Amino acid sequence: MWDNPAVIAASLSAVAAIAAAVATWRAPISAAKIAEHLRRQGDNELESRRFRLNIFATVMQGRAEIWSEDTVRALNSVDVAFYNSVDVREAWAELYQALNTEPIPMVVVDERTRKLLREMAKNLGLADSLRLDDFGRVYFPTAIAEDRHMRSLQRREAMQRLTTPQATTDENAVEELEKKWPPAPVKPAP
Q1: Half-sphere exposure in the Cβ direction for 165 (13 Å, CA)
Q2: Residue 170's pLDDT is what?
Q3: Over the range 85-111, which residues count as b (16 or more CB within 10 Å of their CB) and which as e?
Q4: What confidence score (pLDDT) does residue 168 get?
Q5: For 41-85, what is each residue's pLDDT tens digit?
Q6: Which of 6-10, 54-58, 99-103, 151-155 tops mean pLDDT?
Q7: HEC-encoded secondary structure of the chain
């Protein structure tokens, strides 16, 4: 039977037909799985880019006041958002080091903030041609600066008031009580 070329051709044809049927059945399933995997991967990359862009925009907007709450939150998220960018994380580490130096060297902080912003922009593909000085231009009107300064003075005054020991007034009250206690004896009426 296997000596006949027609039988061999028919057998091989049957095997090819079975393989084609299996491929026809499995191809849509495999294609759907691949498409779903690619969609998820694209969604994850889009969400990661959106997160990085939000961090960049927040730091960019807050570069005049790097100590504002929103900017601090964004800076604290840099390592997570840009986990795969060594340049961004190194720039953040340099800025972090400057922020933790006493007294804080504001010229160095400004320079390192600009460097961090440039590295973030490069990572996002936003600003390959921007110079370091381009990140230094900040519009910060006098009225806003004065308002912030006034709030800072009020905060310092409140902190001073709250942290000043109340012992002086408490000690005076105790001394007054001690002077009156025990009460002086009262002479009986004659």
Answers
A1: 4
A2: 61
A3: beebbebbebbeebbeeeeeeeeebbb
A4: 54
A5: 777 788 999 999 999 999 999 988 888 899 999 999 999 999 999
A6: 54-58
A7: CCCCHHHHHHHHHHHHHHHHHHHHHHHHHHHHHHHHHHHHHHHHHHHHHHHHHHHHHHHHHCCCCCCCHHHHHHHHCHHHHCCCCHHHHHHHHHHHHHHCCCCCCHHHHHHHHHHHHHHHHHHHCCCCCCCHHHHCCCCCCHHHHHHHHHHHHHHHHHHHHHHCCCHHHHHHHHHHHHHHCCCCCCCCCC
Q: Which residue has the tokens 């007034």?
A: 169
What are the structure tokens assigned to 188, written together? 């009986």
